[in-house]
Design a protein that fits this description.
Two copies of one chain form a homodimer. Chain A is of the alpha+beta class. Chain A is 31% helix and 23% strand. In chain A, β4, α5 and β5 form a beta-alpha-beta unit.
Amino acid sequence: MGSDSPLEGSEPQGSELSQESKSPMGSSLYAKSGVDTGEAEHALSRLLLELAPTQVFGTPSETGVGRSAAVIRVGPVRLALTMNGVGTKLLVAQAAHSYDAVGIDCVALNVNNLLGVGATPLAMLDYIGCEEADPEIFTILGRSLADAARLAEVSIIGGETAQVRDMLRGSAPGRGLDMVGVAIGLVPEGDLLDGSRIEPGDRVIGLASNGIHSNGFSLARTVLLGRFELGCQMPEFGHTLAEELLRPAAIYVEELRALREAGIDVKAAAHISGDGMLNLHRVEAPVGFELTALPAAPPIFRVIEEVGKIDRAEMRVVFNMGVGFALVVPPGEADRALEVLSGCSHAAWCIGHAVADAERRIWIPSEGLVGSSKQFMRDTAEATRAAASS
Amino acid sequence: MGSDSPLEGSEPQGSELSQESKSPMGSSLYAKSGVDTGEAEHALSRLLLELAPTQVFGTPSETGVGRSAAVIRVGPVRLALTMNGVGTKLLVAQAAHSYDAVGIDCVALNVNNLLGVGATPLAMLDYIGCEEADPEIFTILGRSLADAARLAEVSIIGGETAQVRDMLRGSAPGRGLDMVGVAIGLVPEGDLLDGSRIEPGDRVIGLASNGIHSNGFSLARTVLLGRFELGCQMPEFGHTLAEELLRPAAIYVEELRALREAGIDVKAAAHISGDGMLNLHRVEAPVGFELTALPAAPPIFRVIEEVGKIDRAEMRVVFNMGVGFALVVPPGEADRALEVLSGCSHAAWCIGHAVADAERRIWIPSEGLVGSSKQFMRDTAEATRAAASS
């Protein structure tokens, strides 16, 4: 980890093409941590401008801006496709020489995005670029991909391995590694799970994350690796920093299947990756969300927040803060949904409800925050009201 | 280009998972050029061993070992998927600061692989990793992707851009770039174009490549950049070395569509990428191929061969040598196929014919070579026959 300069972090922009960028804005520490968001946003917008006209050349995507997967119709079936890389979590894996999580993250990132448009994952492909093809590491990568494929109920049907020594660098010479996944899923006929049917009063259910997943690693590395060794035992976590950072991302295929089989009317689903709860801003209906019962952020987030002196508003945009996936269900089905979910792998809570709001804002009253498309900020209206009533 | 050490080249292994590796074996110069094929083969085999059991978790691939794309059935449709990175051609693009070709190559690599299983390309996604997101470069990347999407008749429906500064390196600091594409296509019902219907006497038609495409860049860089500057005007090419190396890969969608519309019975199709004409070894029928009328290798290949003192047998495995795609048609349809192809963008020639051979060997009599799954070698039987008859 010595070679991981805290000022050279990086972060997947996480931006599906034909979508707005998901990179956090307006964060001075984030800019320092290596993600030059202004320039990156500009570059991305130029790329998207060039790619937009291609929609007429072949089979266009049915999903508009801001969805977690592209959806195309092929004859009588609708398919969802998503492509995401593991990003700089790989640098921590290299430094700790622990690769068990990264294949799982590669699968999780992609299948959870499919779940976000209501698709059932079917299959994946993966790209592994490396400086040196180490058989031991490739075995662990393969095993972790296969473990995750079992959980996600997908076949890994293809991909590419490329030894591209001069193109990569890692935590130490020879360790450079990149890993990108693609997942394809089947979208049921009818509702695209775009949240168009959400009504005020509908409940938001959150599913527990397993650590920081693959989001916010730039900031996490900047804050933590400047201060702690990866092998450092951290009493807050009950294990080493490396073990905490390398917890494999949760896969929510089981939960979504259980809800479907139970006939729960899931009106929207959101993979809480980059942008945190702002992912709920993407629903079609003119509703916002009041998140009145978010779980306490797990220790890793509190450590990053305190050590890095990061604003809660920024923490809420960069990290999942303990909730890796969110669902919207009718109020009358929330209890039954929680009962169904109690038989699944990840903890589930009712964390809030929909409210009428044409601007689709996200309120976190306990933290005095309100969020729109790109950022959380102090809820001054709330502050004004509070002052007026005091 | 000064920073492109000729001994640090690299090369996409080009190995579709659930396929045998396509990296060239037994080449001492190739090993020196950065592709440690023995170790890479071993690592890949370990990865594939771990991934094989995943076929039962979701939707398995219908294609076996050695096909250029995975094929899955989703309800009533059959889909082909392929995932390939541009590889170290990107380093030449960076050094020459010329990115017009790389988006085209990203599309070409992937859609040509779809054509190899008889699929019609529908859509693509792409991953762009970068050290720094430069708006000018992203504009050119987007434009080149869009230009290629038009030729390939695909929509670019999604993808990811990731600013992963610490994970990449390039021809100079800040220029690091990686680009990986995924293509999805529709496979018509019936024949998977696996060559199972090929009979001795069937004709092989070759389609002209446009330079070295994205294959063999490790060896090309090792040989050429140790001796020439990228900006060097080369009389053999009529332009600079950079311009020659950065010619965009040919896209053969137009040709395959024209043949289909004309009702030509294409029995097999092979994207001539890594492994060159050995890609024809993958057909299902017990046939080999005698390639008696290959076109003369274009100047770039002759220069690499002469300057690098590379064996022709190795050249034939690493490079396309002027033929970027091959088709097999019945003898009675070859003339009509050539007539149809004469109205398309790339030159087409009848380059040989199928012969009965359970070992599926590829003969190039004019060069005294015979090839099987992994390599070309001197055709000693031929030599023996020649000696006996002299």
